Amino acid sequence: MEIGAAARENQIDEALAFATVDLRGRPFAVLDLKLYGRDLGGFAPDLLNHFLESFAFALKAAVHITVLSGVNDHHKAEAAFKALARALDAAVRIDPR
Question: Which residue from 42, 45, 20, 44 is spatially nearest to 34, judged by alpha carbons?
Fold first, then answer.
């Protein structure tokens, strides 16, 4: 049985994000969150990039997350995390093929 890769999208109100995860041991992070505000719930938006990069390398996973559209930074961040969660869920499922 092999752990795989998956891609998923997620929408929160006006925000739409797309995430892919490859769990086959080649860590890398490509992030385009399009967070332009100075504050996001009490912390700087660049901390999300740092967290997601650290997460990818600790997990030894290739993670790509792109926010495709949105206005509200909170919605864009939430859509990105939910897309990542859905991609992770799909990547660890057993493929019946």
Answer: 45
Buried b or exposed e, range 45-69, using 16+ CB within 10 angstroms: beebbeebbeebeeeebbbbbbbee
CA–CA dist 65, 13 (Å, integer)? 18
pLDDT by residue (tens digit) across 62-73? 999 999 999 999
C-alpha span between 19 and 77 (Å, rounded): 12
Residue 35 has pLDDT above 60, yes or no: yes
DSSP 93: S
Entry pTM = 0.90
